[in-house]
Amino acid sequence: MPITPEQAAEIDAQRAQPQPTLRATAPGIEAHLYTALPVLDHGFVRVIDYMGDDSAIVQAARVSYGAGTKHVSNDEGLIRYLMRHWHSTPFEMCEIKLHVKLPIFVARQWIRHRTANVNEYSARYSIMDREFYIPAPEQLAAQSSVNNQGRGAVLEGAEAARVLEILKTDAGRSYDHYEEMLDQDGKQGLARELARMNLPTNIYTQWYWKTDLHNLFHFLRLRADPHAQYEIRVYAEEIAKVVADWVPAAYAAFADYRMGGASVSATGLDCLRRMLKGEAVTQETSGMSKGEWREFLAMIEG
C-alpha cells in the first residue's frame, strides 16, 4: 500500500485543521495538500507546501519588465508571452514542496535534476521498509535493438514469469540478509550505514523535494515525455496533474509551447520555407544528417 494507516491518520489530521492566511492561495492545489497520490505499487506523490500562483508570475513580470508588457492585454496573454519568449525568472516566483516515495533506481535518475532542494530518508539512521518495486507484467520488456536507453518488445509467457520470480526472490533474499546483519539479539549487529549497501535499488526510499516552477517545467518536459522511462514518467504525470490545478494558465502555456511545441534549427526552418514554396526537399538536399532528417520528418508529419 502507498501509505501506512499512521500516515493516513496524520494526513487526515492535517487536512482537518486549516489555518487562516493573508498570503495568496490557489484553490486548485489547496485541494491536493497533504493527500497521497498513488504511483507504481508502493509509491506516492503528495504536496506538502507551495508558494505563489498564476498571479505571482504576472506580478513578478510586471515588476521586472514594466512598460515592456503594457501591450499584453491580460494575465493569461502575458504568461503565454513569457513562455513563448523563454523568460524564466517570473516562473521562479512559484515554488512547490513534494513528499515523494519512489524506488531508489528512479530516485537516482530523478536527482540528476540538480536545481531542487532535497532531503532524503536516511538508512544510516533508520531501517528501510520491506517494500520493493516489482514491475507489472506489461512493463517487463526486452532491451530495445535500436535504442540503448529504451525498451523493446514486452516479455511473455515463461520468460516473463522467470524474470518476475528472479526480481521477487532477489529482493526478498537481500532484505532477509539486511535484517540478519542488523540483528542484535545476542550479536553485535552490523551498523545500519554498512548493512544498507546490500539492499537492491528497487527498494523504496522517500524524500522531500522542493523546486520552483521554472525548473519543475524543465523536469516535466523531460520526464513526462512519452520517451521517458516508464517508472519516472508516471511520477511526472501525477505531478503534472497537480501543476495544472495549481497554475492553470502557466501550465496551459507550458503544454502548448513546450510539451506540444517543437524547436526547429535554422537548417530545418530553411527546409520548411522551401517546402512551403513547393520544392521537393530530400535528406540529400536538406543539409541535415540522416538522424536529423528522420527527426525533422517525424516532427512535421506528426
Automatic annotation (TrEMBL):
Function: Catalyzes the reductive methylation of 2'-deoxyuridine-5'-monophosphate (dUMP) to 2'-deoxythymidine-5'-monophosphate (dTMP) while utilizing 5,10-methylenetetrahydrofolate (mTHF) as the methyl donor, and NADPH and FADH(2) as the reductant.
EC number assigned by the record: 2.1.1.148
Cofactor: FAD
Keyword Flavoprotein: yes
Encoding gene, per UniProt annotation: thyX
UniProt entry keywords in alphabetical sequence: FAD, Flavoprotein, Methyltransferase, NADP, Nucleotide biosynthesis, Transferase
One GO-annotated biological process of the protein: dTTP biosynthetic process
Pathway named in the protein's UniProt entry: Pyrimidine metabolism; dTTP biosynthesis
Lineage, opening ranks: Bacteria, Pseudomonadati, Pseudomonadota, Alphaproteobacteria, Rhodobacterales
Keyword Flavoprotein: yes
Active site: R223
Reactions mediated catalytically: dUMP + (6R)-5,10-methylene-5,6,7,8-tetrahydrofolate + NADPH + H(+) = dTMP + (6S)-5,6,7,8-tetrahydrofolate + NADP(+)
PROSITE patterns for this protein: THYX
EC supergroup of this enzyme: transferase
NCBIfam families on file: thyX
Protein name as catalogued: Flavin-dependent thymidylate synthase
UniProt similarity note: Belongs to the thymidylate synthase ThyX family.
Cofactor note: Binds 4 FAD per tetramer. Each FAD binding site is formed by three monomers.
Residue positions binding FAD: T89, R112, H113, R114, E120, D212, L213, H214, H218
Subunit annotation: Homotetramer.
Superkingdom, taxonomy of origin: Bacteria
